[in-house]
Amino acid sequence: QVGVTAQKTMRLLPASGRKAxxxxxxxxxxxxxxxxxxxxxxxVTVFKTLPGxxxxxxxxxxxxxxxxxxxxxxxxxxxxxxxxRGKQFLSFETNLTESIKAMHISGADLxxxxxxxxxxxxxxxxxxxxxxxxxxxxxxCLPVDKVNCITPVLACxxxxxxxxxxxxLLYEVEIPGPPTVLALNSGNGGDSGEEVVYGTSDGKLGLIxxxxxxxxxxxxxxxxxxxxxxxxxxxxxxxxxxxxELLVGRDDGVLEIYNFESADxxxxxxxxxxxxxxxxxxGGCVGKDGYDEILVxxxxxxxxxxxxxxxxxxxxxxxxxxxxxxxxxxxxxxxNELEHLQIKVLQEREKHQQSSQSSxxxxxxxxxxxxxxxxxxxxxASYSLILEVQTAIDNVLVQxxxxxxxxxxxxxxxxxxxxxxxxxxxxxxxxATYRCQANTTRLELKVRSIEGQYGTLQxxxxxxxxxxxxxxxxxxxxxxxxxxxxxxxxxxxxxxxxTLKGQFSFAEIHSWVVFCLPEVPEKTPAGESITxxxxxxxxxxxxxxxxxxxxxxxxSDNISTISILKDVLSKEATKRKINLNISYDINEESVRHxxxxxxxxxxxxxxxxxxxxxxxxxxxxxxxxxxxxxxxPKYRSILEEADQLLEEYKRQPAHLERLxxxxxxxxxxxxxxxxxxxxxxxxxxxxxxxxxxxxxxxxFFEAA
Length: 704
Known about the structure:
The protein has 704 residues and is of the alpha+beta class. It is 24% helix and 38% strand.
């Protein structure tokens, strides 16, 4: 184990000389680079550097077409180079204002990315520069020896791969999720050298051929099993069939091996679950000559190997005896190590007790790092909050000042308890404690928010360390929290328009849009004006926002979205004493259109609720009568599917109330724009909703 590691910070050095086994080099957040090999099952250190700034990336380099055995690390805004023996030969201060987030090396070319800035250096001299429209998560360059020109590819948070030529954008590639990692197919870009594999934060994988003029998508794998986001990818022939497999590491600890049975589409061959997120993955030969393995490094710094070496030896008793002796010596050495560690812990504990009780005692709060991720899931319109701590979590307290629902997560083994909270004086709507089982280092929660209600969700994380200490992490729940960025929208839908005019700058209106909507880059976009498209993940309605200095135009097929925007934007402008001229154009047809979008969901949820209410009565009948042949087929099918129905109902507890709430808001908002207050008619509306008749509902909306 090393310190906490970031994504893509562990590599295998190429095998040198007669020895076929490879050395492992890993950089951690304490700034230490560790290089080690495995001898007789034990890790033997080759070199270890002194601590420093945390290491964000580790890459291997060297002259083109020679073994890539020089080690390069990115720390802060500096790049350092080490030989495979651990001697430092390069220290390059880039003078970037932000820390380096991503790095790629090809011969004398160095590609670096901070949050929004891409820089290309050749022999440490500045060559090209590009400012991206959204955060850059990863960078690579197509192999120069195959493509004959430098083609950098940036993976950007706004679901785009940006392909560059020099300092200019060549073209953009739309992909189905925010890309977190890029890799060259088969490690070399395939036969053409133009094939790039990407992994997204919502767990999708794809291959795109980046030609000189346009992208050609080859294949794409969705995330059917609802697994974690992808953090690392490698290509290695672990099955020994002469074709490189795709090795994938995810942030929920799942390791996957895909192989290419048919020439085009990869198929999942193996998977293996670890208890924490996989930061780096490599295929190679480390532990034993002749047996390939997959090596992964996890968030808290564990390096784990999965080997192809058979564990059960075939052969006579002599072999078994030899194995048992080997095992015995291993077990005894582990026992010694354990005793040694226990003694050390006791000594340190005594030392701590003495120092904390002495007259010169200084209060010390142990620092621990938390890896967190708060993202919107498109499939069920809920937010996932993932908290990962380098030591075991004792408990997590979740508090919110806006109404949100906590949903059930299958992978979550923590015990949750709710505390009653008074929402009136100090606007406290949720207080829940998750108590974790021993050795839990990763916790996943799911919450669903209500659009129009915005505020902060806070997580108080307490790990199992002494003295007790806690970290608070805050997550903004935005007014239009269930909207997600999309590449395009359907312009044929009936749209409502909200137009703002006033004495505001481009930066000011951009900051208001950032406040209202998720997935908008915090940095003000370059240029005079900008257009963003969004889709509501719960209903499928859409929003188009176009704005520039002094003017903003928002179009949506859902009146409620326009109403929320109008309220929040005018509130934000009032805070800054800016006078706004607000005009709107309401399309009557859009209400009917939105109701038609909501209705199938409403019908489904009402039917589900009715079925669930019948289950107990039907089960009682079954017990009394012994068999259920006399029941109508629809009731028999309810009994057969009872477990699935209950499971689904439990997974989304307040779904029906949500839909009722949305229809009520739609009704109130429709008439609010006409200047009429219809709150007294809401009870009548709820009666019609219980009847679940689409035409009756539309007629009520139009008659009122």
